[in-house]
Design brief:
Layout (H helix, E strand, L loop, with lengths): L10 E6 L3 H12 L4 E7 L2 H11 L3 E5 L7 H11 L4 E7 L3 H9 L4 E5 L3 H22 L20 E4 L8 H13 L5 E5 L7 H4 L20 H7 L1 E2 L5 E3 L13 H14 L2 E5 L6 H9 L2 E6 L3 H16 L6 E5 L10 H8 L3 E4 L4 H10 L3 H4 L4 H15 L13 H5 L5
Parallel strand pairs: 1-2, 1-3, 3-4, 4-5, 6-10, 6-11, 7-9, 7-10, 11-12, 12-13
Antiparallel strand pairs: 8-9
Helix pairs in contact: 2-3, 3-4, 6-15, 9-10
The structure holds adenosine-5'-triphosphate and magnesium ion (MG).
């Protein structure tokens, strides 16, 4: 099983079907989903009850027509006895009547055969997430829901903005993959693309939907959950995405006042909102920086990037945003002859986290339109993103300036503006 050791446990699945080949096919497909694991299988409803009692799964994939005990009776018993278990019915065309009964019996979702592996995995994730949310809502404050090790953003970084005054350092790459890491960790995550002219978050996720941020049109409209739901695209990774406009001309349509209200609503509705920005301080970016709890500033060990990052930092500090900035060293193993201590001293800030360089993986995932933290979970670059996710959840160490040290290169990096 490929490794996405995000901050979560895998979704435990039980497969129930009287046809052995169907169980084998499903298990084979689920084998490739790094956030799920099949913990048991059963050939009829009665066996299913036994396996569920033994394994305490999160999700049961349940066939309807089976000998000994059918899927509807088993669903009813399971959902009564174990409300945290989500039952997903597997049916064939023409079983609509049974399907209705299964839903009444407590099934959360259904899949109609034949279904693709993607349909199956996203249905499992969705059912599981909904069940978590329901449980959280019905659990008295201070009590942990059954079967749940809930993850909490200890530092309450609810709005996280990636910013860098120099383009091409990796804002979008890091923002997209961090959003997926956080979403895989049972957090409800939104990702907004504020690079209105040339934003490419939709390319990273292979999105073709029409809705985008320019629908926050000039005329006053009420910013409410319906509007939010209609704008956000729910990606299979669980991230809710607000893409940039398709053409630069549309950028002007976005009304900053409405965007401001939208940010407040995102803060309220999501555990975490990750924002990607252009390489300039435009009006919306300034609003996002102002509202952010954490600003992640990527840098690379090259003179032009360092010069611009230093200038960006100076502006952020003059706007009183300096206290919420953490610097990320992207492509950290590409040194270009610049020592990390010299870079830190030049910025007067410690590097909070390093992201590994891996062009092959990053480009391949971009070309496929699938984030590398899930598609290439075993790579060092993916693992370095997971560790960044951990820091976002658990908190960064207090950044302190590096000790003064004089070297020729150090002087070179002491730009003045
Ligand atoms: N860790 C990494 N390893 C290898 N290549 C990387 C890494 N991070 C980013 N890249 C590459 O760097 C380039 C720029 O990345 P990206 O588009 O994320 O930057 P950006 O800051 O969003 O740029 P822009 O300002 O143009 O929006 C891309 O080609 C990307 O594939
Ligand atoms: Mg970008």
């Amino acid at each position: 099983m490929r490794e996405v050791e995000l901050l979560q446990e895998k979704i435990k699945v039980v497969v129930v079907d009287d046809v052995e080949q169907t169980r084998t096919d499903i298990k084979r497909l689920l084998y490739f989903e790094e956030d799920m694991v099949v913990v048991g299988e059963a050939a009829n409803g009665k066996e299913a009850l036994k396996i569920v009692a033994q394994e305490s799964p999160d999700v049961v994939l349940m066939d309807i027509n089976m000998p000994v005990m059918d899927g509807i009776a088993a669903t009813e018993t399971i959902t009564m006895a174990y409300p945290h278990v989500s039952v997903i019915i597997i049916s064939i065309q023409g079983e609509q009547e049974y399907l209705k009964k299964a839903m009444v019996a407590g099934a959360r979702e259904y899949l109609v055969k034949p279904f693709s592996s993607e349909e199956m995995s996203s249905t499992i994730r969705q059912a599981h997430r909904l069940s978590r949310r329901r449980l959280n809502a019905s659990t008295p404050p201070g009590e942990e829901p059954p079967g749940e090790k809930k993850l909490r953003l200890q530092n309450r970084f609810k709005i996280i903005t990636f910013f860098c005054g120099k383009g091409g350092i990796g804002k979008t790459t890091l923002a997209a993959n961090l959003a997926v890491v956080l979403a895989s960790s049972r957090l409800k995550v939104a990702l907004a693309d504020l690079d209105l002219q040339f934003g490419d978050v939709s390319v990273f996720f292979n999105l073709n939907e029409m809705q985008n941020i320019s629908d926050l049109a000039a005329e006053k409209q009420e910013v409410n959950r319906e509007l939010l739901d209609s704008l956000l695209i729910r990606h299979a990774s669980g991230v809710h995405i607000l893409p940039a406009p398709f053409s630069p001309q549309e950028a002007e349509k976005v009304n900053p006042d409405i965007f401001q209200e939208m940010l407040a609503l995102l803060r309220e509705q999501f555990d975490c909102t990750v924002i990607d920005t252009p390489a300039s301080f435009d009006e919306l970016t300034l609003m996002a920086l102002d509202q952010s709890d954490l600003i992640l500033l990527p840098v690379r060990r090259e003179i032009a990037a360092i010069k611009n990052v230093k200038a960006s930092l100076d502006i952020l500090r003059s706007l009183n945003f300096g206290g919420k900035v953490q610097v990320l060293l992207n492509q950290a193993d590409m040194g270009f002859g610049i020592e990390i201590e010299d870079l830190e001293r030049s910025l007067n800030l410690q590097i909070a986290h390093k992201i590994v360089n891996d062009e092959k993986t990053v480009v391949a995932s971009l070309n496929k339109g699938v984030p590398f933290v899930t598609e290439y979970a075993g790579t060092e670059v993916a693992k370095s993103m997971v560790r960044l996710g951990e820091k976002v959840v658990k908190g960064f160490h207090q950044a302190e300036p590096a000790a003064p040290r004089k070297k020729a290169l150090g002087r070179l990096l002491s730009f003045n503006y």
